[in-house]
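Dear colleagues,

As part of the handover before I leave the project, I'm documenting each prediction I ran so the next person doesn't have to rerun anything. This entry is a single chain, and its sequence is reproduced below.
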Amino acid sequence: MKLPTIYLLRHGQTLWNAQGRYQGQLDSALTSKGEKQAKTNALKLNQYIDIKEVKFFASPLGRAKVTAEIIARCNGLESSKIIFEQEIQEFNYGIFEGKTKAYCQEVYAKEFSDREADKFNYVLEGGESYVKVFERLKRWLASIQEEEVIVVVAHEMINRALRGIYCNMSSEEMLTLRQANDVLIKLENGSEVILG
């Protein structure tokens, strides 16, 4: 499958990021730091691309939506031009959502250890696995393969999976990937470059 060049961003820091809570498909607001990160990302992106010339995709979850709107506004793009795509909303953490890691380790000890033993395949109650995330990301990638260049604002887990698919990584390698809230990544020709 031919894939476009992707400028990949993560939403700005949220209250739950700061508190160490699993967010998944629940939401919490951006912090003031998160809003500044979105503005910084807008400036970084502007050094490489004019977002008015390409399709701009974002997760429809509030934290990604607000981040994308800040980036658009800073770069002269109307928010109505952002394509909010369900397939790139965050990994569903099921029973872990809204809870801290420490809480889950204590209250859901078995589920926590089972997931740690096989993060790629394990499905949390009410949630999904990376296998399921791969399925929806592959559907979305197939739908955008005619694009040359796009911008994406999504989430750490989704971006991790997207980078893994795009760069043809093993599941073990993919699971080690991180992306801070203020880092811009360029995916091109089957590889990635951290732009800052």
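Strands lie at 5-10, 55-58, 82-84, 149-154, 185-188, 191-194. The two ends are 28 Å apart (CA to CA).

All the best with the project,
I.
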